[in-house]
């Protein structure tokens, strides 16, 4: 900036605003727009004035000629090496400066952001870009030193700008209105000459520094500040760099010191870690590059470890000339004592952001006063409003480290400050625990007390969503906080499927019980940990935790809690496919709940019993259990539980081939889950609804339902559920003969199941993948897929799944004309289906045994097998597959040389079955065969398209 005000002698102000050199001729004042200077006597009266007189007056005029004074209109430094990643910001600024912009707004852009974020560099880059476009004939630059101990005043800045414009020192007016008048006059004069200047006012801290510098007319201006300076022009907040741009800046800065520096290219992962440790802040990256240049042998990983280590990260961001801590000190010193105090207190919040009410609790101040202080901190860019939610505030990691330093320094001043900070921390922890406990009551079964802190479930969930990270961080602060929050957070974390957090908070609580020697709560914590592990699909660990909880409850005689442990244990044993043991656990839970009069618990046990009985293929008994659960949930007003029971009921109806009833049940489940806001339950219902629609041959509706399920599971981060939806989507595509789409969907399902370690799901996906590959006539690949599925099901002890894989394996062998192998595979499938009591699967196996016999020329045996298949499928009321089986039998009868009437009757039976299934196209094709009077020659062996199986429906 220009020098201080050095007692300049007063000069005449009258002529400094002429348009050219002084020639002694009288000139009209040319004060610019907005100027308050210049003498305009139009309309004035002079009666009685001493200056009025009559006669002739003679005057001599003396004109002093001055040599031309040089101007400084090319003051813009080049941007530093490595300038990158500001394309959107540059586009915005250039839109403001563009002389052809629309609107009448002044060409003034105000760039704000916290220290070190790169505002000045961006302003320089924008200035150069504008000059390259020919928008400005020159640039005026002034540094306002807004955060120095003595910031520049507007008068000093005007002096520097006037000197840059070529005004001689002796023509500078003294401080006051004259300087800004002369400044605007100079700029107006240049505008009349066709010039357009850009004024860059860097490092401002107050509007008063900048307001007199705003140029008139069509000139432009860029202002940089760590504060939001409103009312000057268009505002733009400059944020940290994107990760890839930060790495690019680091590499460019290193190569500026040594073009052969290979470190970023050799270790890009360490470069990313280092950029992250620098907070993607340009100044921190430049300092880090300078330190690395001083130590050319230091690996980037070592530097990244040092910044993330025990030493303060700010200690590692000081190269002797530039210091991030010093820059932060300058910003802090500009705050009022109340603002400084709140900034330090915010470091006590354990999570990444804070709400205004929580900050008021922390500061022990009324909420409106706290909000005003927070807004002023945000205007200084020491904190910022969170972009997603109003009323929340966050702090950059490096500023958080600085705030921690400041808070620690304040506490080290004595016992009283430390006690004050400890009390503030305790108030905040208590605030989080109290609110979490109140919010959790809205997620509990109805009937318990509900505090008035939250009006309803939606408001409670909204609060939990906003505070989850803070609550999880709070659980790490003290053992007592972990214990309280493990209980208060459980239902919410399960509801929103934050399953890893669910495990972590309960593990913290278990550790707290050990540290506090709390035996009273230990059984409950083991039970909750088991439930969390069950949801997280760590089934063996879940069984251990739940057995421990059960035993502890038995020791203390807590029957109701023991019932809960038995109930959860039954669920874990089901997942391990130990169904008989699971059944015992769930029956025990039901009986204990009945003893204690816990109706909702009884409903839970009946619901889980129903799913276990389904797995044991005891469908009628399962149906009774699930209907009982549904009715009990309705009695207690537990809408969420009722939705879960309806969903499981739909699965049971599907197993009983009652697809219309299944459709109704899944629709009821979906609607209730939507009503309660449970998107996880809704996704499960959509998935099962898609399966029911597919069975009803409503393929377009099925695709919509399954795509909706997939999208909801993705939104919820439920990879397991997403995999199931992809699997069922693949089967629906296969039914539509869209085999390429089916292949993509099933490969995705397989990969997701592998990712989550779900061997049962992976085996199912491999099996269905084989069907899609067969549809694409990639039979060798299909064979590999079905063999893989068979082996996985054998390893998992899943006899039902193994039977399905053997059946599909046989189909593929038939396509490869390996009929002996096919016959063996189908016979194995039939035996396994008989073991599990799967009548539908056994009927399908009989059908395919018949086609294999036909391929071997053993037509009499083929006819026997075919008749067995149609009889069993008709008894199952599986009309679509019955239609297919009658068609296969008609083909076999033709191959056996049966009379035409017998063949025609088989085709007519096929048409009738298809009609009952609603498969009109297939029914028409069968009628066409039946109406044919020509002798049909024996056909080539065909493979029944019967055994495709959906992935197991999702239980609620």
Report what the structure shows.
By secondary structure, the chain is mainly alpha-helical. The protein has 40 helices and 8 strands. Strands 2-3-4-1-5 form a 5-stranded parallel sheet, with helices on both faces. The protein has a 3-stranded antiparallel sheet with strand order 6-8-7. A hairpin with a 6-residue loop joins strand 7 and strand 8 (392-394). Helix 16 runs parallel beside helix 18 (479-495). The protein is elongated. The relative contact order is 0.04.
Short synopsis of the structure:
With 956 residues, this protein is mainly alpha-helical. The strands form two sheets. Strands 2-3-4-1-5 form a five-stranded parallel sheet, sandwiched between helices. A three-stranded antiparallel sheet has the order 6-8-7.
Number of helices: 40
Q: Which structural class do the helices and strands define?
A: mainly alpha
End-to-end C-alpha gap: 71 Å
Low-confidence stretches: 1-69, 933-953
Tell me how many strands there are: 8
Please give the radius of gyration in angstroms: 40 Å
Give the biggest sheet.
5 strands, parallel
């Amino acid at each position: 900036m220009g020098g201080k005000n050095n007692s300049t002698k007063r000069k005449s102000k009258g002529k400094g605003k002429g348009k050219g050199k002084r020639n002694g001729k009288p000139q009209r004042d040319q004060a610019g727009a907005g100027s308050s200077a210049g003498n305009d006597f139009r309309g004035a009266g002079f009666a009685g004035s001493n200056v009025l007189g009559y006669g002739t007056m003679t005057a001599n005029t003396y004109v002093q000629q001055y040599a031309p004074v040089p101007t400084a209109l090319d003051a813009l430094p080049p941007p530093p090496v490595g300038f990158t990643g500001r394309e959107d910001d540059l586009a915005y600024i250039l839109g403001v400066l563009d002389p052809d912009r629309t609107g009448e707004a002044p060409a003034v852009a105000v760039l704000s952001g916290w220290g070190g974020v790169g505002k000045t560099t961006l302003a320089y880059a924008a200035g150069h870009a504008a000059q390259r476009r020919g928008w400005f004939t020159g640039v005026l630059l002034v540094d306002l030193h807004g955060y120095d101990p003595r910031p520049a005043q507007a008068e000093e800045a005007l002096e520097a700008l006037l000197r840059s414009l070529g005004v001689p020192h002796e023509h500078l007016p003294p401080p006051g209105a004259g300087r800004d008048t002369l400044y605007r006059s100079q700029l107006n004069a240049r505008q009349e000459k066709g010039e357009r200047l850009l004024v860059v006012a860097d490092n401002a801290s107050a509007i008063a520094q900048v307001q007199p510098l705003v140029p008139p007319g069509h000139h432009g201006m860029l202002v940089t500040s760590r504060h939001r300076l409103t009312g000057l022009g268009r505002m733009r907040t400059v944020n940290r760099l994107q990760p890839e741009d930060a790495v690019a800046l680091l590499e460019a800065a290193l190569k500026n010191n040594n073009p052969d520096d290979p470190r970023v290219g050799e270790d890009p992962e360490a470069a990313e870690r280092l950029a992250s440790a620098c907070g993607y802040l340009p100044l921190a990256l430049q300092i880090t590059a300078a330190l690395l240049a001083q130590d050319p042998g230091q690996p980037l990983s070592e530097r990244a470890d040092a910044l993330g280590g025990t030493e303060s990260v700010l200690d590692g961001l000081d190269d002797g000339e530039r210091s991030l801590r010093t820059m932060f000190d300058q910003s802090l010193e500009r705050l009022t004592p109340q603002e400084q105090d709140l900034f330090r207190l915010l470091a006590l919040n354990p999570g990444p952001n804070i709400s205004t009410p929580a900050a008021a609790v922390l500061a022990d101040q009324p909420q409106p006063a706290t909000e005003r202080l927070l807004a002023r901190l945000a205007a200084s860019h020491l904190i910022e409003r969170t972009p997603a939610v109003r009323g929340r505030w966050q702090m950059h990691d490096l500023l958080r480290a600085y705030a921690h330093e400041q808070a620690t320094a304040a506490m080290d001043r004595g016992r009283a400050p430390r006690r004050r900070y400890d009390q503030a921390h305790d108030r905040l922890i208590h605030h989080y625990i109290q609110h979490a406990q109140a919010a959790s009551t809205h997620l509990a079964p109805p009937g318990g007390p509900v505090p008035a802190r939250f009006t309803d479930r939606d408001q409670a969930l909204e609060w939990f969503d906003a505070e989850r990270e803070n609550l999880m961080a709070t659980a790490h602060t003290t053992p007592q906080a972990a214990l309280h929050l493990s209980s208060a957070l459980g239902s919410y974390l399960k509801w929103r499927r934050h399953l890893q957090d669910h495990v972590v908070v309960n593990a913290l609580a278990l550790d707290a019980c050990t540290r506090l020697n709390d035996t009273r709560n230990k059984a409950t914590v083991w039970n909750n940990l088991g439930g969390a592990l069950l949801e997280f699909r760590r089934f063996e660990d879940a069984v251990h935790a739940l057995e421990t909880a059960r035993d502890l409850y038995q020791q203390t005689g807590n029957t109701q809690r023991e019932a809960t442990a038995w109930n959860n244990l039954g669920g874990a044993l089901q997942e391990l496919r130990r169904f008989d043991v699971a059944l015992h656990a769930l029956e025990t839970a039901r009986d204990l709940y009945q003893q204690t009069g816990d109706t909702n618990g009884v409903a839970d046990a009946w619901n889980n019993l129903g799913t276990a009985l389904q797995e044991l293929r005891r469908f009628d008994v399962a149906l009774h259990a699930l209907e009982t659960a549904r009715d009990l949930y309705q009695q207690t007003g537990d809408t969420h539980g009722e939705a879960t029971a309806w969903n499981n009921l739909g699965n049971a109806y599907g197993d009983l081939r009652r697809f219309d009833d299944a459709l109704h049940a899944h629709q009821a489940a979906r609607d209730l889950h939507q009503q309660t806001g449970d998107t996880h339950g809704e996704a499960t219902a959509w998935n099962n609804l898609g399966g029911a629609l597919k069975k009803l041959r409503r393929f377009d509706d099925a695709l919509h339902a399954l795509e909706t399920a997939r999208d909801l599971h993705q939104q919820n981060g439920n990879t397991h559920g997403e995999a199931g939806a992809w699997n069922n989507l693949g089967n629906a595509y296969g039914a539509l003969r869209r085999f390429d789409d089916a292949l993509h969907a099933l490969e995705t399902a397989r990969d997701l199941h592998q990712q989550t370690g779900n061997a049962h799901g992976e085996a199912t996906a491999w099996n269905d993948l084989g069907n899609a590959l067969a549809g694409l006539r990639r039979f060798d690949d299909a064979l590999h897929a079905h063999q893989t599925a068979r082996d996985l099901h054998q390893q998992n002890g899943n006899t039902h799944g193994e039977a399905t894989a053997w059946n599909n394996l046989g189909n593929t062998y038939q396509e490869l004309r390996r009929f002996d192998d096919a016959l063996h595979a189908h016979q194995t499938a039939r035996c396994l289906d008989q073991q599990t009591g799967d009548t539908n699967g056994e009927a399908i196996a009989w059908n395919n045994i018949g086609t294999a016999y036909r391929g071997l020329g053993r037509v009499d045996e083929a006819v026997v097998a075919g008749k067995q298949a149609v009889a069993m499928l008709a008894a199952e009321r599986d009309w679509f597959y019955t239609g297919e089986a009658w068609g296969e039998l008609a083909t076999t009868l033709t191959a056996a040389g049966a009379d035409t009437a017998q063949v025609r009757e088989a085709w007519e039976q096929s048409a009738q079955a298809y009609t009952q299934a609603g498969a009109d196209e297939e029914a028409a094709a069968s009628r066409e065969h039946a109406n044919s009077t020509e002798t049909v020659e024996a056909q080539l062996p065909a493979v029944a398209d019967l055994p495709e199986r959906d992935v197991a429906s999702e239980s609620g």
